[in-house]
Amino acid sequence: MSTLSGYVSKQGKVNTGWKRRWLALFTGVGEAVLQYHTSADTPLKGTIDMGDVVEIVDGSACETRKSFPHTSPKWNKQIPSSRRFAVIMKTRTYFFQADSALEAEKWVKGLQEALTLCDHSSV
Fold first, then answer.
1. pLDDT tier at 119 (50, 70, 90 boundaries)?
2. What are the tens digits of pLDDT across the range 70-99?
3. pLDDT in tens, 98-109
4. In Å, what is the CA distance from 84 to each residue of 44, 75, 105, 121?
5. Cβ count within 10 A of residue 6
6. Longest dimension (CA), the chain
7. What phi and psi values does residue 115 have, to the nearest 5 degrees?
8. From the centroid of its chain, how far is CA 44?
9. What is the DSSP string of 76-108?
């Protein structure tokens, strides 16, 4: 059972356009996984192992940050920074835009809590 789920927009890795995705965060003892799908009832498109996450960046930090590892965001200028967040991993950075500032805040808080469940001693 997921601890947090809902729709957000995710920037693609190769096709850097924004696509609407269903995210589901699953947490357990010492581990957490973020999955994304095209919609809630479609097959899995990708998985983010929270144990490999280096940092969660909220909207205000996304706005002021000069650069990100691995790639650059192509933020939709019509979307306020309060609706943005990023998940920085060792090998990739994921960029997300929520439907509201409240939704973005919920995701950032949930992802940060999930990070505390994971052992980062190898980072």
1. low
2. 888 888 888 899 999 999 998 999 999 999
3. 999 999 999 999
4. 23, 8, 9, 28
5. 16
6. 39
7. -60, -35
8. 15
9. -TTS-GGGEEEEEESS-EEEEE-SSHHHHHHHH
Tell me, what DSSP letter sits at residue 116? H
Cβ atoms of 18 and 102 within 8 Å: the answer is: no
Per-residue pLDDT tens for 19-57? 999 999 998 877 899 999 999 899 999 999 998 999 999
Calculate the alpha carbon distances from 80 to 10, 60, 63, 95 in Å: 15, 10, 9, 14
Read off the tokens for 93: 């950075």
pTM value is 0.89
What's the DSSP call for residue 28? Answer: E
Tally of residues, the chain: 123
> 20 forms bridges with which residues in the sheet?
9
Residue 44, amino acid: L
**Helix, strand, or coil (residue 38):** coil
Q: Token pair of 91, please?
A: 């090998």
